[in-house]
Amino acid sequence: MIHPALPASLLALTAPLAAVANPAVPTRARVEITQVSIHERIIIRVPRMFRRSAQPVGSAPLSKPREWKERKGPKCVAVAEIAGAFLGQPGSVDLVMQDGTRLRAKLDGDCKPLDYYPGFYLRPSGDGLICRDRDAIRMRSGARCEIDDFKTLKLKQ
After folding, report:
1. How many CB atoms lie within 10 A of CB 151?
2. Which residues on adjacent β-strands are paired with residue 72?
3. What CA–CA distance (Å, rounded) separates 96 from 137?
4. Tens digits of per-residue pLDDT, 2-29?
5. 103: buried, middle or exposed (CB in 10 Å: 19+, 13-18, 0-12)?
6. Phi, psi dihedrals of residue 70, rounded to the nearest 5°
7. Which of 6, 38, 102, 117 is the most exposed place for a label (fewest CB within 10 A)?
8. Residue 60, phi then psi, degrees to nearest 5
């Protein structure tokens, strides 16, 4: 027994062939346009370094914390040179560079989310730099804090 849907299916399959075979029926040219966009996004995670809160057993008491003096800093910093970061004063992040120097990134506000997360993210521009008055640091929460200025830190004597 033939399934009742089989003749209708065969008819539907042969209809396009009949239209092509009949030159009186004009065929329309079918044009397909495809567009592919590739976007590259680089985000660099900067780990936050923690100071030792406990001293080793049998060692001398820890000395007082270091004090830093701020001096004029660069306008931009190469992201590849950043080794880590410390939370310095409120509203700033101390960046430790690979050569051992320190920079303080002054932020546009108090930036409370920095206290809750163990690091932050930088999205450098195409030039590989983060610059004051242009770039921001971002937290996992989605908050972002604009970088207002960079200061070079020197150890107080």
Report:
1. 20
2. 151
3. 15
4. 656 556 555 555 555 555 555 555 556 7
5. buried
6. -85, 135
7. 38
8. -70, 155
CA distance 66 to 156: 8
**Chain segment 84-141, per-residue pLDDT in tens:** 888 777 788 889 899 989 999 998 876 776 666 667 888 878 888 999 999 988 887 7
Is the pTM higher than 0.90? The answer reads no
Closest by alpha carbon to 80, among 115, 44, 113, 107? 44
* 114 and 144 Cβ atoms separated by less than 8 Å: no
Give the E-state strand segments of 79-143 in sequence order: 82-87, 92-97, 102-107, 119-122, 129-131, 136-138
Token readout for 96 is 């430790």
β-partners of residue 120 are 46
The 3-state DSSP class for residue 103 equals: strand
